[in-house]
Amino acid sequence: MAHAYDLDEYVADLWRIADAGLAEPEILDAVGPLARRLAGNRGLLDIRHYPADPMQPAGLHLLHEEADHSLAVFAITWLPNSMSPVHDHGTWAVVAGVSGVERNLRYARIDDRARRGFAELKLKSTVDVGPGEVLCMRTGGIHAVRNDSPEPSLSLHTYGRHINFATRSQYDMATGTMRPISLRVSGAGAG
Fold this sequence. Notes:
Helices cover 15% and strands 38% of the residues. It has 191 residues and is an alpha+beta fold. It has a single domain (7-182), classed as Jelly Rolls. Strands 3, 4, 6, 7, 9, 11 and 12 form a seven-stranded antiparallel sheet that branches. A six-stranded mixed sheet has the order 8-5-10-2-1-13, with helices on one face. A hairpin with a 5-residue loop joins strand 1 and strand 2. The longest helix has 16 residues, at 24-39. The mean pLDDT is 89.
């Protein structure tokens, strides 16, 4: 039986990539295939182990985080027929599908950024991330996540920094306002 790529190996590879001094696009190119490989380890990510949080559109289960809050890895379960607010992460992100489909609505900021607390956004693309698929987002990327299915979906998310310890914003499309955002997280060191 072939060896299953595990979380410890993944974290070691993340540190190897971080220590290489790569630019962000190169980091994303290197992490994407590794995240896909880890997401394929069915022994690590089983939807029964990561229940969704009914108080928000998803359940976030922290799998790994460094003491300085860098290189955070989450298993995220999206509730059926749910949608996250439009938001950014304040760090780079790699999403690898495990089960179901995570639909990402990606937005471009089209205002001149002159007004504090205001952002005008335009939908630029929709990307579905299902099992074996990966989406990489640079720092500052803005998106919303939907699960249009009647079943939960599960995905592996890797961030350059724990999302509750990065400067993040939630965007209100109706008013154009933006405000800080944080989420409830389960797992050791959840922040």
